[in-house]
Amino acid sequence: MTAADVEAAIEAGIEDCEATVTTPRAPDPDHEDAHFAAVVVSPAFEGKSLVQQHQLVYDAVGDAMTTDVHALEIKTYTPAEYEEHGT
């Protein structure tokens, strides 16, 4: 699974979502595990706790979290939060 695949899964699974997924570490060719970092912006996060927001992202990635993705660093924002604090 590539960063683009993870990004597409998140954007397909969360309404009005914009995701940017990167690989913060150099991939280890000796392991199938992949580490990804995602910045996800969506109005779907309004009124939800950070845990609920991250659960939406994990749900969007789905079964790949147990097969293709070893680690997923997540930063979630509503559009207003991203405009104010996003990096």
From TrEMBL:
Taxonomy, superkingdom: Archaea
Protein family: Belongs to the BolA/IbaG family.
Protein name: BolA family protein
